[in-house]
Write a structure and sequence with these properties.
Layout lengths: L2 H9 L26 E11 L6 E12 L4 E5 L6 H9 L6 E7 L2 E2 L2 H7 E4 L11 H12 L6 H14 L15 H13 L5 E5 L7 H16 L3 E5 L5 H6 L2 E6 L2 E7 L3 H7 L10 H10 L6 H7 L22 H11 L8 H7 L12 H19 L14 H5 L13 H18 L1 H21 L10 H39 L5 H30 L6 H28 L2 H17 L16 H5 L1 H14 L18 H7 L7 H29 L2
The structure holds adenosine-5'-triphosphate.
């Protein structure tokens, strides 16, 4: 049976099939993945508000089914629970949830499910400092197995960019892309490993009507390729609304409609809710859900069984009169309950149609459904820019969930590869973000010369030892603040992209954190060395290599430790709180550094603070480098120089018995503890945002 013939036959019925003549574009180079049907039953989501006893129920025992090959819209009034439902279905939110979620009829294993799905959040979380091509290269390097050849990866990139209309912009920085292009790039990045189930939170937000149309067309084409595409959407135009295959509508945390978009008006009409002529059905269902036509929510929820019923094209409408009758309701549940039946009951029957095996089965409704399906199939084949992906229908759902490669690994690449890719990307950002780099360099050189001029040639002057100690302390202060603030500011800005990429299984948190941690160390080290060389020479500190190395190592460690403090603060809190708290938290460390008050003068009950004050170890390290190890007497150009002998200075500072090795060891220990703490805070932050 050729396509044209079937379409003519279909033309006799009520179906309308639009065929556009362009050749379908196919994604042939992507890895094969199984189709995925997602179902949820009696899903309840509660959160605690304020006091522990105050529990708010956001989703109230909703059920539903989202099929492969369909574009599903989750709609509802503001606050109805759309984002919450999406977050639960993606696995982004897990605590506070009750009910069951099944994948291809089997209880969902979240870890396996996340390998099959991707979640494209509302605000395209992209790194602005990469070109489209580079962003795609990073995605392929992280999301495709390492064994994939470079040529294959490039082919995948080219194919996706071509299909999504981004190949013209492959050299454009992502920050310069338009809103619609950013959205397409977000999709392109996730499409690399061909996830069979894709979730989108408000994919059309911020787009004009033409971009909205393009975006939804793209999602529709992805669905036609066999994927399960689910997105939340506020209030689409009638034209956009028609493009969705399946509609799931929420009102006040309950399901008021589930079924094909084409049957919405008919279904509402059967419940005495007549959609006015020329009125957008999408607007009508929202208005009904908002209560603009009276309080119909309860009636709709009961009729649709809170999502257990599905108003499918080609299936009879549930008989309304029977819904108040418990016995009939149970009967209805039996015939519609996909948990008890084979998960793909209807669809599997439909799937045989093009082969002609089950073309007639005796029931008109099913027959209509089969014809509709066949029409859809033909429309798919002829559609404009159909993004097809060969999917393998697998009998064993478990095999499917483990991925077609059968690999139980969480990530496509090893942690070492992830580390290298993220490190290279971060170094590229640093190179691109030259303003910040030059600013940092400029600040270190400028302040170095300023300090050099202020404390010029005082290092060997016995009458200026107190000024020299001020210079040593200022070094600590300067290096601490410059290193700390950079990470406090930059780390939280990375967070949204980290959340997205980590959730979508691009890399492990460990690899990411190691790469981020390592990436800034060389820059900080270079800036610190430049600063120390300038001030050390200008202030005439002792020109002995071993003293210089001790001085430099203390300064470097202070910079690294302060950077780690910035990481902890940046990982644990937002920029506003961090910018305030970090300097305030540093005050006790500065006070107990040994510069303002010597150790013996500190009250015993406060002395413990000196042991955790990294500034103390740094200050002590530079003081020892300058005055200990049998330094010769300082020059004295006055009648009496109290600090002419370096040991006097050490005595005044209570540092006669201080051990430089211990200072370095303490700084190293604090560094390690802080880096581990920053990682733990980051992990906690990622978990708590969910
Ligand atoms: N953690 C939370 N604590 C308290 N209430 C919450 C929490 N998360 C969500 N809610 C509430 O749950 C309801 C549903 O929120 P949700 O974000 O899912 O709505 P929505 O349908 O996506 O709304 P919108 O279309 O406006 O984005 C809202 O009333 C919201 O205030």
């Amino acid at each position: 049976m050729d396509n044209k013939f079937l379409i003519n036959n279909l033309g006799k019925g009520s179906l309308k099939v639009t065929i556009t003549p362009s050749q379908p574009k196919t994604l042939t180079h992507l890895p094969k993945r199984p189709p995925v049907d997602l179902a949820f039953t009696d899903l309840t989501y509660k959160v605690q508000e304020g006091r522990k006893s105050n529990v708010k129920t956001i989703l109230k025992s909703v059920s539903g089914r989202l099929r492969s090959g369909e574009l599903t819209a989750i709609m509802g009034p503001s606050g109805a629970g759309k984002s919450t439902l999406l977050n639960i279905l993606t696995g982004y939110k897990t605590s506070g949830m009750e009910g069951s979620i099944t994948v291809n009829g089997m209880e969902r294993n979240l870890s396996s499910f996340r390998k099959l799905s991707c979640y494209i959040m509302q605000d395209n979380q992209l790194h602005g400092n990469l070109t489209v091509e580079e962003a795609m290269a990073v995605a392929t390097a992280l999301k495709l197995p390492s064994v994939t050849s470079r040529a294959d990866k490039e082919e995948v990139i080219q194919e996706i960019l071509d299909t999504l209309g981004l190949s013209e912009h492959h050299k454009t920085m992502t920050s310069n892309l338009s809103g619609g292009q950013k959205k397409r790039l977000s999709i392109a990045l996730e499409l690399v490993n061909n996830p069979p189930i894709m979730f989108f939170d408000e994919p059309t937000s911020g787009l004009d009507s033409s971009s909205c149309f393009q975006c939804i067309s793209l999602l529709k084409n992805l669905a036609r390729g066999g994927r399960t595409i689910i997105c939340t959407i506020h209030q689409p135009s009638a034209r956009l609304f028609e493009m969705f295959d399946h509609l799931y509508t929420l009102a006040d945390g309950q399901c008021v409609y589930q079924g094909s978009t084409g049957r919405l008006v008919e279904w509402l009409g059967s419940l005495s809710l007549q959609c006015p002529s020329y009125h957008n059905p999408a607007s009508f269902i929202i208005e009904v859900s908002c209560g603009e036509y009276g309080d119909n929510t309860g009636k709709l929820v009961r009729a649709i069984e809170n999502g257990k019923n599905d108003i499918r094209t080609g299936m009879p409408l549930p008989k309304m009169a029977e819904y108040n009758n418990k016995r009939d309701m149970d009967q209805s549940l039996k015939t519609n309950d996909w948990n008890k039946n084979d998960a793909s009951q209807v669809q599997d029957k439909m799937a045989d149609v093009p082969n002609g095996a089950n073309g007639t089965n005796g029931t008109n409704n099913l027959h209509n459904g089969l014809l509709q399906f066949a029409a859809n199939e033909i429309a798919k084949g002829k559609g404009d820019q159909v993004v097809q992906v060969e999917t393998e229908k697998q009998d064993n759902a478990e095999v499917a969930l483990l991925g077609t490669d059968g690999s139980p690994r969480r990530y496509a690449t090893s942690e070492l590869t992830q580390f290298w890719v993220v490190l290279k990307r971060t170094l590229l950002f640093s190179r691109r973000d030259w303003t910040l780099m030059y600013l940092r360099l400029f600040a270190h050189i400028l302040v170095g010369f300023l300090i050099g001029a202020l404390y010029y040639d005082i290092g060997d002057d016995g009458s200026k030892v107190l000024s020299n100690l001020g210079f040593l302390f200022f070094n600590m202060l300067f290096l601490m603040y410059t290193s700390m603030t950079i990470t406090i500011l930059s780390f939280p800005l990375e967070m949204p992209v980290l959340i997205k990429e980590h959730f979508n299984r691009w890399y492990s948190l460990r690899s990411y954190y190691l790469a981020i941690t390592v990436s800034d160390i060389p820059f900080q080290a270079i800036f610190c060395i430049i600063y120390v060389v300038i001030v050390y020479l200008l202030t005439s500190q002792p020109l002995e290599w071993f003293r210089f190395s001790m001085f430099l190592s203390s300064c470097l460690l202070i910079a690294f430790v302060a950077q780690s403090v910035g990481l902890v603060v940046g990982a644990a809190m937002n920029v506003q709180n961090g910018v305030f708290l970090a300097p305030v938290m540093s005050v006790p460390f500065l006070l107990f550094s040994g510069f303002f008050v010597s150790f013996n003068a500190i009250p015993v009950y406060l002395r413990w603070i000196t042991y955790v004050s990294y500034i103390r170890y740094g200050f002590e390290g530079t003081a020892l480098a300058t005055y200990a190890f049998n330094r010769t007497k300082l020059q004295c150009h006055q009648v009496y120089c109290h600090f002419k002998h370096p040991d006097t200075t050490l005595e005044e500072l209570d540092m006669q018995n201080a051990d430089f090795t211990l200072d370095i060891a303490a700084l190293c220990l604090i560094f390690v503890v802080l880096r581990i703490s920053a990682f733990l805070f980051l992990r906690w932050k990622l978990r708590s945002t969910r």
